[in-house]
What we know:
homodimer, 340 residues, mainly alpha, Farnesyl Diphosphate Synthase, two-stranded antiparallel sheet, 17 helices, 1% strand
Amino acid sequence: MTTLQQFNQQMQPAIDQTMQGVVVSHPLIGEYRGLKEMLSYHLGWDVKFNRGEVQGKRIRPLLVLLTCAACNNNHWEKALPAAAAVELLHNFSLIHDDIEDRSPLRRGRETVWKKWGDALAINAGDALFSLSFEALHNLKQTCSDNVVIQALKIVNTTCVKLTGGQHLDISYENERAIGLEDYWRMIEGKTAALISASIQLGAVIGGASDQTQQYLAEFGRSLGIAFQIQDDWLGIWGDAARTGKSTESDLLAGKKSLPIVFALQNKGKFTERWLAGPIQPEEVGYLANLLIEEGAQSYTEKQAENYTHQALQSLESANLSNEAGQALHELALMLLKRNS
Amino acid sequence: MTTLQQFNQQMQPAIDQTMQGVVVSHPLIGEYRGLKEMLSYHLGWDVKFNRGEVQGKRIRPLLVLLTCAACNNNHWEKALPAAAAVELLHNFSLIHDDIEDRSPLRRGRETVWKKWGDALAINAGDALFSLSFEALHNLKQTCSDNVVIQALKIVNTTCVKLTGGQHLDISYENERAIGLEDYWRMIEGKTAALISASIQLGAVIGGASDQTQQYLAEFGRSLGIAFQIQDDWLGIWGDAARTGKSTESDLLAGKKSLPIVFALQNKGKFTERWLAGPIQPEEVGYLANLLIEEGAQSYTEKQAENYTHQALQSLESANLSNEAGQALHELALMLLKRNS
């Protein structure tokens, strides 16, 4: 078992328990049975076996805990409230995103709005938003007031960025073409912000020096951007996307992903086809190749490499050489080189 | 000019300025032009004249500031970030409530979802939620870390209550009849929580003793409940409601207000008609009278009197005898005896 796997095995049950403590065991939520049921469903606690499949990988809380441990002599327990908070916040944004995108399925099951309707789902998202901050307040038991305030402020400012990025994403849906600058601004908020915040939280709670905190913040930002670029690559050239049988290709979804936004700058054959109207499943293979011909794949890979390189360099500068530091490095590599 | 009017005249522009400082002048919001425009519209800053009509009365921030001043030798400036925060939070909940209730109009203008669609509106509400906490963090400039954390916690727990109350409200829409206990639980979250929080914030920031804080918390809770009962009374027997021409009668809206919920316990003529299906405009006058005959008006008035009495008694126990204390008393009376 690798160091990362060892940490992961210890951390995942603790993350889950902390999340449950602040959601289903919250003294107020108990009074609203229907609401508790909705949140338990979304967070996968209604499932008895193979929960992992409906709960997602919980990467963000892992980043919080590993960063804390790397700065704090391998100890991570004191960061658990923050780890729970980022995962709850991520899940709040999923509930609302699914309504906004009209997505009927999430992790193989019906989405919350599909099951309970828009009104209750919007409100359940709001409840989870509040509960994620309830989790953060529990830091008070192990951290100084100053650290608690810093943590609350990091997460809150991240929320402003998330909603800003999401605003751009929704707005772009009505535009057939956007520029590269628009793209970078959008993913900065949508993906990079919360991943970066997770790492910053771990650093602050772990008591890292200002210099280390800064390196780690840069690591988090680059990691988040590289992660999104990787996601965009997979959305066009990943196995599931290329078959064209599934709806997993970003070409079918009309998503403003990096390869597509890049190709639209060229105003070549791809642009011509894209602007002519929605893509059909049988065109997916041809267009994925056209994107390669027009340089979109090499551009995307170049950007992914750049940000990956920056991320790893910042992490190295932070100089976290204990076991948790190694596990964090391992997790970063895994996120940056994944193929699904 | 009464003492309340004098304070109000000084406070309102300061509240507005603080709110603008945290929304339109927020360094991040500036990057998302469309989002800034939506929030400015909802908060009435796009209007040049008679802004008051589209901005509402801003009673909650006034409660924060007056309570702070009453505890703090008539000084209220240090509580401005909290005053802005509760008003922003109230407005976040209005944006989402309007989507959830499909209300097309708010303060005489199109609601945010009606103008920009559900997706952008849900997200704009989330942004305002986050910005209200950004406002609270500015307390750091004038308060100790401990007070900042207390304030953040008060507001956050209030959000959990708000979403709990809203969950019940939406759930009850599909039930033709609910019990009195359900009613009390719902308004505790929907209305009383934020009014009570406003007063608690003023007390904590104003440096009130634990004993005074407790009296004021009780004052806030009773005031909030009495305020809602008053609202329910007006929704059936207020001038606008009785004409039956407008849609302002809670009878037409099928709202689970106190007089209606009370009458449904009786299982008399009113219940019979209510369970038979939606009320028509021409029945409004008759049914409003039927509610009186079945004792719903006297029950509602009795409850309003009880909570009003409790509110005023708790306020008296807090013993705030300076000018701001008098103004707070005046505001409470105004809220409890209003006729529109």
